[in-house]
Amino acid sequence: MNSIRIFLLKGKESMINHVKSIQTLGCAYWKKSRNKKLEVGDICYLYLIGKGHYQVRYRLEVVDTNCTRNDSSCWIAPFKADNNCYKLVPTAEMYMGNKLSLDTLENIGVNRHSQFKELNEYQEVFLSQYFREL
Predict the structure, then answer these.
(1) How far apart, in Å, do the first and last CA atoms of the chain sit?
(2) Can you tell me the distance from the alpha carbon of 3 to that of 105, in angstroms, rounded to the nearest whole number?
(3) Average pLDDT, integer, range 70-99
(4) Which terminal residue of the chain has fewer beta carbons within 10 Å of its beta carbon, N or C?
């Protein structure tokens, strides 16, 4: 069995309303790409870009690695159907504070330009303290 890995993802709120997706659908969908290899059980911290966020807002768990997008109602950009994407569900309440900015991420060793990054144990312990389990 593979061990659980921890990642940072960045979501552009100008394309998809991730908050709406998680609040109304109970999940977020994520497009697959060659450099993003997620497995069921992996944990993803979601940093939101735009709409006044610019913070890590969610701690999510990958629950499906081969599903169809069902979030067309949450798209701001033209919807792109995807029959092979990841499904992530929240493991904690949305973080509403202002202590998980790009500057904070850099202070714990995460490059501010990273769009997708596997995190180390120190970074995960640091981020997890801001999320209250559901």
Answers:
(1) 25
(2) 24
(3) 94
(4) N
Q: How confident is the model at residue 1 (pLDDT cuts 50, 70, 90)?
A: low
Question: 5 vs 38, 40, 44, CA distance in Å?
Answer: 8, 10, 8
Q: What is the DSSP string of 26-91?
A: S-EEE--BTTB---TT-EEEEEEESTT--EEEEEEEEEEEEE----GGGBSSPP---SSEEEEEES
- The two structure tokens encoding residue 55: 């913070």
pTM of this structure: 0.94
Token representation of residue 52: 């006044």
Q: How many residues does the chain have?
A: 134
Chain Cα centroid distance, residue 20: 13
Encoded tokens for 100: 């998980």
Tokens read off for 120: 């180390």
Please give the torsion angle defined by the CA atoms of residues 44, 48, 49 and 55, in that order, rounded to the nearest 10 degrees. Answer: -100
